[in-house]
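Question (not urgent): is this output format expected?
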Amino acid sequence: MKKMWMLFLGMAFLLASSPVYAAGTELMESFSFRLTIIENGIEHQWEYDSPNHYEFESGERVIKGEKAKEEVERVLEKINLDERATIEELVSRIQQSLYPKAESVDIRYMNGEGKLFTWVWHKPE
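Got this back:
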């Protein structure tokens, strides 16, 4: 347990020295970000893990590296992620700018301090 804590602190320190930028704006020195949207039964997922792992999945297609980084930055710009945002605000932004018929939204964000934020929404039946 102590080793895991030390590893986590080490990763947090690395993050503090290399913040993530989304469309030219600092994104709260994030440690990890996951966004999963389901629309018309197709799962779309954006992932970021510090210091520079990016991945984008849409259905069967998986993209990694620089192109995935562009996709992650684009989606972060569109949803304007903020630790104080409500799920209703985030879903509204997603439906207005990305997926108007979203059925499900799941956002997981860990900031540079190791604090986890989770937003989950399912379209009412």
